[in-house]
Amino acid sequence: MEKSHIGRLLVVGVGLIGGSFALSLKAAGACREVIGVALQEEVCEEAKKLGVVDRAYTSLPEALDLLEEGDLVFIAVPTLAVESVFAQLKDNLPEGVTVTDAASVKGSVQRSAEKVWGRVPNFLVLGHPIAGSEKSGVSAARDDLYRDHRVILTPVPDTDVDRLRLVAQAWQAAGSEVLTMSVEEHDEVLAATSHLPHVIAFSLVDTLAHDAENENIFRYAAGGFRDFTRIASSDPVMWRDIMLANRDAILQAIDLYSLNLSSLRSAIASGDSSALMGVFTRAKAARDHFTKMLAKQAYSEPMQAKEVTFIAQPGGTVSGKLRVPGDKSMSHRSIMLGSLAEGVTEVEGFLEGEDALATLQAFRDMGVVIEGPDKGRVTIHGVGLHGLQAPPGPLYLGNSGTSMRLLAGLLAGQGFDVTLTGDESLSKRPMNRVASPLREMGAAIETGPEGRPPLLIKGGKPLSGINYRLPMASAQVKSAVLLAGLYAEGETSTEEPAPTRDHTERMLQGFGYAVERNGACATLRGSGRLKACRIDVPADISSAAFFMVAAAISPGADVMLEHVGINPTRDGVINILRAMGGDIELLNKRTVGGEPVADIRVRYAPLKGIAIPEDQVPLAIDEFPALFIAAACAQGQTVLTGAEELRVKESDRIQAMANGLSALGVSAEPTADGIVIDGSPEDAVFSGGTVDSLGDHRIAMAFAVASLRAKDTIRILHCANVATSFPNFAELAVGAGLKLQLA
Ligand SMILES: O=C(O)C1=C[C@@H](OP(=O)(O)O)[C@@H](O)[C@H](O)C1
Ligand SMILES: C=C(OP(=O)(O)O)C(=O)O
Questions:
Q1: Domains of the chain
Q2: H-helix or E-strand spanning residue 670
Q3: Which of 399, 470, 589, 631 could join 598 in a cystine, given CB atoms 3.0 to 4.6 angstroms apart?
Q4: Is ligand 2 within 6 A of the CB of residue 400?
Q5: 622: annotated active-site residue
Q6: Is the CB of residue 697 less than 8 Å from the CB of residue 540?
């Protein structure tokens, strides 16, 4: 951990917060000496006795006299007392000393500073640790109170960057994660996440304490009461100050809460079970996704994205029976169509990966009651084609292109406005490919610069059917147009330049919606109805592909992949591997819920390089990262053409793979629409080294598979997004025989 460069630390207000900061910095060896200031002599004595401070004074100016350049003043008095501390600092603070505070409300502290100095002085860094305890006083101080907690710093334009860095380093030394945001944002977020819960806890306990029966209530109050009201033991003065200091934001939060509480009351009064389930399932999901929440958004980017590195040791082989998770494309569509259907749709085999969960959360945010997922089971209480409600904020779709493009189509026909956002990768992906045809249908869609997200979709625009000839083979574009067609006047049809996955067409039919299919064309009429059904999602062939390639390249391998969807619009990976000499058997072929399914057995056989037929490209579009690994292990050259679409996936997959392959000593030449790979039948094809997956799940998994034929360890950077499509990849891979570790 980086140590701060503070000389002396002066803590003004030696209670729980100030005392814990002092102890943390002392424990980290991050300051030379701690001086305390407290109003009462007894507190000074106790702080010294407990070893929290080295010296203590009841007079702030006296203590300030001891400071010099590079020292830090930490103000930890109740919010409304900060101003009087500022007033004493004004004439007594030595040059070069930095000041920070820990008050829970930043707007009022900013105003106090402006009152005292006319503006926030450049040496004052406003801050707030998101940590505390219901206990108070110096005797409750701990050196680990801030460890693994967040601290929000709210610099203003005048704040000196070196002072900001000094304060951030001090908090890091205390073990905290430092974030910065504006004063206004801080106060709104805290009103909702901290101040409102305290209001409710104080008021609930006060209400019950007034009750004549209170003794009984407290005697029998067990878990729920205890968990929920712990914070009502917090320091009353501190909380009074917070209420007064952050009045407007807290009032807004209380008003919103009162409204929701009264509709919950009505639901209970009228026995409205579905409204109760709605609130409870949404709340449970939100609580479970706690770390992904931001104020006013039910689901949002994790505040702190976790960093995962794959470390794949060389060699080994793969064997055994494996069931990879559910198909991602079908999982998305099951939530979308289940939500728009009338009645209750039961889904099995649902992919509990981040992408499909983003779609699920989007529909919860639009008022659909969805139970689960629980071991792949999801129960969707459909609201009908016209039953979605405006979400409380932008719909955050993470890394998922399918969610954004299909939702764009579906939402173009709603009566409300909605904004679609995504993570850094999704924010770079082209959206005009859906926005243009949807606009032709009458939709009002705004995109970010160059047709990138966010998408703002205006509601209440009447749509009319179109005949759309897709300029590229894309199931996402086809699906977006067809889903908008559900809301359009008349007939909507799509014509694709090459067959692409047809899960939308099949699943619509499964929900009882007429879709006419004729060669490259799919046609439907608006204003029909979807009837709830059961959906069994088979294992995802795109995930199975990593183990197919693993088996195809490792001598001695024999793998059985169970219950895999082998829809003919998705089977390119089987065809291509077979053309390269792969030994693949399809066993126990059957149809499940309108989709062909089989168990796929793959055994090792020497591979040879081929020119990949262009008609296979859309049928294997997501499998190319894995197929490039197979190509590197094949005798001779493999040439891919007609695959420019790979450049606009979660990463530019042609470049990302070419870079990674080259880093591992394989000759891989990217071209505008494909790649040329010179394979080698040697035992150790890949040299070992470090490759960057660029946060693309499929690049990460492909290079993990390469380790089977590597000479040395392969380190793969930025692998957290494997969880978008294949959350248990590492576990299954290790079980099958890969030597994979996570760091
Ligand atoms: O419709 C779908 O579920 C998908 C379509 C494909 O994208 P494009 O339509 O952009 O080719 C594919 O790459 C993606 O993983 C899922
Ligand atoms: C391209 C992919 O997904 P999406 O477009 O949904 O992000 C993929 O999973 O490989």
A1: 8-181 (3.40.50.720), 188-271 (1.10.3660.10), 310-315+539-742 (3.65.10.10), 328-536 (3.65.10.10)
A2: strand 667-671
A3: 589
A4: yes
A5: yes
A6: no
